Amino acid sequence: MGEELNTGLCLGYIMLTERITLIEPRAPSPSEVAKIVQTRLTEDWLAVCIGLFVFVLSLALLFGIDLLGWAVTPSVWTAPSKALAPASKHYASLPALLSLIGTYVFLLIILLVGVKALRADLKRFALGFTAVFAVSYVCWFLGSWAYIAATPDKRPALKIPWSLNLTNESGFIIALLAGLIVGNFLPRVARSLEEAIRPELYIKTAIVILGGFLGIAALEQRQLATAVIFRGVCAIIEAYLIYWPIVYFISRRYFGFSREWAAPLASGISICGVSAAIATGSAIRARPVVPIMVSSLVVIFAVIELMVLPFAAQHYLYSQPLVAGAWMGLAVKTDGAAVASGAITDSLIRAKALAAGVAFQPGWIMGVSTTVKVFIDVFIGVWAFILAWVWSAKIERRPGEKVRAVEIWRRFPKFILGYVATFLIVLAIGLAAPSLIPKVKASMAQANLFRAIFFLMTFFAIGVMSNFRKLWQEGIAKLAAVYVLCLFGYIIWVGLLISWLFFHGVLPPTVKG
Amino acid sequence: MIEPCVGEELRRMESKYEPLLPIERKLIWYTFSTGVVLLVIFVLFSRMYT
Prior knowledge:
The structure holds two protein chains of two kinds.
Chain A: H1 2-17, H2 30-59, E1 72-74, E2 84-86, H3 96-117, H4 122-143, H5 146-149, H6 155-158, H7 170-185, H8 187-193, H9 199-220, H10 222-254, H11 259-270, H12 273-283, H13 289-317, H14 321-331, H15 335-355, H16 364-378, H17 380-395, H18 406-411, H19 415-432, H20 437-464, H21 468-473, H22 477-503
Antiparallel strand pairs in A: 1-2
Helix pairs in contact in A: 1-2, 1-13, 2-3, 2-9, 2-19, 2-20, 3-4, 4-7, 4-20, 7-20, 9-10, 9-19, 9-20, 10-11, 10-16, 10-22, 11-12, 11-13, 12-13, 12-17, 13-14, 13-15, 13-22, 14-15, 14-16, 14-22, 15-16
Chain B: H1 3-15, H2 22-49
């Protein structure tokens, strides 16, 4: 019986980090906790491995070998038959359907190898992934329909009189909506997909690949890239030092939460959602149910932000694109939702600017969102260490207990190493051999295709695991009240102010010609 | 399932309020004031040097 109960908690913890659901809390044994921590680390490293694998394959183009050019890419279409095609002209003769199947099989194989290390049920994963990939790609296909996606400059060529001007990344929003429908109205389907609903894995892999793409941007605009990185570092000051204490104070003083609830809640709302809530819960030795509940809230509200903030940014901040990008990184919690919001904001603002006659280079807005978010992530371990020290040495003083510095490394989000590696490799190649920059750019364009697919699956997966009804049934309206008050009454606005202070007047480069 | 535990616990918390300890007040105040001071410094620095 005890083992069954402990297994229940393990499941809860794993869901906490990957597939969040609300389940009954029970105490784990130390060995199970160790196993869970190991699993979590493996997922971060897995994202690094998959991301680097795609990155390295794409770099074969430097030696004249096109290893990824067969991957399918969607174009803005008016006739469905012309929507899909292989990415590279080297594979122009390959039928689009074969290209699509090849992309699916390639991703299935590398993910199967990966999730085997996570001890996942491979059969269930393969079935779930097939559905996730299929639905996500259909959403991308629909989002690429010219009447939805075409920007004003493309309308004459496509011979259409109007379009919603959303670019083909509107497929992300369609994927999110599809996921929300499955998660909230088709619970059996959602359960059957559970093994493949891994938004954290998908987004971390995408972020590793994104590093190379941003490396290209940095090569082309070194001064601007330096300014963006510096301002990104500054932004973490806000997240940790300005957000956290206020949210903690409000939770404790005005909502009467205990320390055990207030600290993970403050970290979840202020810093980086799920990861921060888990790290803080662990640092202060909160019961497992606390970060589970907080994380559920984080995901739900991240989805709401994801659906609202990019459009608000497009409406009010299109003349300050990088302010908008930083705002997404600071205001939207969870890596997936923040970077995804950055991607949508990037396309929405560029489309609006284009309509006004300004063609910003793609990727800079999303790059700022990612940079800000990544720097916030980097310091989660440090913050957890500080809290662990305050709690153990001052609040719940335990004789003889010491907090070890190795904890910082243990809690460090390892996928960031992959992001930094791809960024630096591209930068180093470009700086050492400027003549190779066009080839590196072509390589990253191919890798970026897979980044987009991982993004797409992240959106769908976030939607599937956002069960609004279930959360409400759990009777945690009070937690939600703090979240709503702090997020919409404080964090979003302070985030906007700080983004404005650091990024206003800093514009992305424009497309030449 | 979880509702009787967490829901009830959250409701009970109001009657069993744990007052803010001096160390918590320090943590809140020091963190926030450091954040504001560094923010001003970084904004000035970023405007002058980048």
